[in-house]
Amino acid sequence: MSVQTAGLTVQAGDFDRAVLEELGEPFELVEIPLDEIDIDRSRRVLHQVRFDLDAYNQDHVDALATVLEQDGELPPGIAHRDQDGHYVILSGNHRYPAHQQAKRQAMKFYVVTGLEGVPTTDPRAQDVALRANVAHGEPVPIEHRLEQASRLVETGHYSIKDAARALVVPEGKLRDQVEKINSRRRLAEVGVPLSEKDIPISVARRLNAIASNRVLEEAAKLVPKMAQKAEETNRLVVAINEARSEQEQLQIVEQTAQALDAAGTVQAKARKLKGGALVSPKIRRFDGALGVIVRFDPAELAKQNLPTEFRDHLRTRLGEAVAALAAVQENV
Known about the structure:
Layout: E1 3-4, H1 15-23, E2 27-33, H2 39-50, H3 58-69, E3 77-81, E4 87-91, H4 95-101, E5 106-112, H5 123-135, H6 142-154, H7 160-166, H8 171-189, H9 201-207, H10 213-220, H11 229-242, H12 246-274, H13 281-295, H14 299-303, H15 308-331
Parallel strand pairs: 3-5
Antiparallel strand pairs: 1-2, 2-5, 3-4
Helix pairs in contact: 1-5, 3-4, 5-6, 6-7, 6-8, 7-8, 8-9, 9-11, 10-12, 11-12, 11-13
């Protein structure tokens, strides 16, 4: 039988209780016999929190066991009864074997009464486990905490700001992590094969700015053909988002596909005739700029009530551009 212990007093370093109080989770302090703990389910929680096979640290267990063997006490852990009535440890997976090693028969836990009968995979239970394991014990590497924080955001219960504060990670890095995950997930949802080589994460994030899933899928197919993936994708996304309708956006994608195919043919010929010569990034940027000019609708100027000074500026620039394009044409 589990015996409830009276007199809840916070011990030095009692971070688990502090976490529960901060989260507003009701709990009782209970001394639980060690053989009533479901250690397999508890270990799964530990590995979910720390993400690696070395999450269990025997040196840390030995140090804790030494405290107990010298008649010291450790702060209580956190546990809850899951949907099958099993006690599962949410925090204290090193203190538990330390109690075993020190020949103790029971261990004190804060049993979260609000999680009674809830699966350990429930966001609230995961929240408690993540928060408590970051607050104390063996340090959790920042890359693991970022992954954990992104999970909290995915539950919908946390904003990026709140999750970053809860798991002590830089908000900017967490935002970057969430954007990466969302970009990859959306590409997968529209049926785009995920390959870091063909579509780097920076490119995936830029593609995510395309609202239409249909246009996104078609645009993503072009990325592996691009020589300068980030730069060319950025130009393509800008052009797509400037178009008014999905049909116009698809036309832009088609035009870009034709340009890439043509460039590929030219490059193939160049490699054959000149021993590996390629179209340079500068020429590719120039070709992209020409595409912007070709797609520009002159009617836009008539719709705008432009200041006289700016109109004069545009006329001057157009004159310069015409002269420059004439010179370029002579060299093509």
